[in-house]
Amino acid sequence: MENRHFAPALRFQNVYVYSKTLQQPKYVFLEKVLQQVPGISFQKYRENEQVLSVQNAKPNSVIVFDDVACENQNKIRDYFAMGRHKFIDCFYLNQTYSKIPKQLVRDNANLIVLFKQDERNMRHVYEEHVNTDMTWTEFREMCSKIWSIPFNYVVINKDCSKNKGCYRSKFDTFVVFD
Asked: What's the whole-model pTM score?
């Protein structure tokens, strides 16, 4: 082991969380864990006005927007439009896909994680991200099969092609089409 070089496992140095419910156990736990990691800063915001503009955010960051679809979306749109130029990864967590702003947020998503959705939300996902790869019936059947397993979810990785990981059951099982 003495001749090995260990590179940092995390590619980010800053974690920003914008949520109206920062008291959730997951965020309390995340803050405690990250306080113990040298070189990682953690900042949380409850109000839209507190969120740093993308210009003032530090590079090599992760920002989580958690269930803030009813809030002003201007700063959030800026992150999805310009964040990648500063090496900022964005996560937008929401219960209902169709309530996520389409312009810049849904359109600029590279990775979509779908827990069980109703027909309306599935249609939006299909029309915006899937319709060139399969029929509506095939998409609905794929999702139903994946969601039939407890705690399972569909992943759409828009950086991959159809048979090379674009569609997944959780993150680790690729859906392969004939």
From this structure: 0.81
